[in-house]
Amino acid sequence: MSLKKQYLKSKPICKVTFRLPQSAVKGAKKVHLVGEFNNWDHKSTPLKKLPDGSFSIALSLETGRIYQYRYLLDGKTWENDWEADGYVHTEIPGVENSIVKL
Asked: Contact 51/98 with Cβ under 8 angstroms?
């Protein structure tokens, strides 16, 4: 998993590339990025499957913020980003969300 950040000089925007490697996909056919930037919508942000079996998507996000997110595999299995900027506890005991700091 990885987060790649490209800050724009002309706007308070950062292009963030979220990537889930094949080893973390666990054989899933579909992967969605779910988080504060899409109101936790389970279907609005699908990742594209790459030839190496990994999944990736790039989003333009406002800087100066911290966003919580997770990956949803095949609509049923949640996965955190192993290379997130950090983690926060949720209301569900034992469950954390990944965060990206911009």
From this structure: no
Taking only the tens place, the pLDDT of each residue in 35-92 is 999 999 999 999 999 999 999 999 999 999 999 999 999 999 999 998 999 999 999 8
As given in the structure block, the two tokens for residue 100 are 């990206």
CB 31 within 8 A of CB 72: yes
How much is the pTM?
A: 0.93
C-alpha–C-alpha distance, residues 72 and 95, integer Å: 14
Using a 10 angstrom Cβ sphere, with 0-12 exposed, 13-18 middle and 19 or more buried, the burial of residue 29 is exposed
Annotation: CATH topology of 2-101: Immunoglobulin-like (2.60.40)
Q: Specify the 3-state DSSP secondary structure of 56.
A: strand
Neighbours of 31 (CB within 10 A): 26
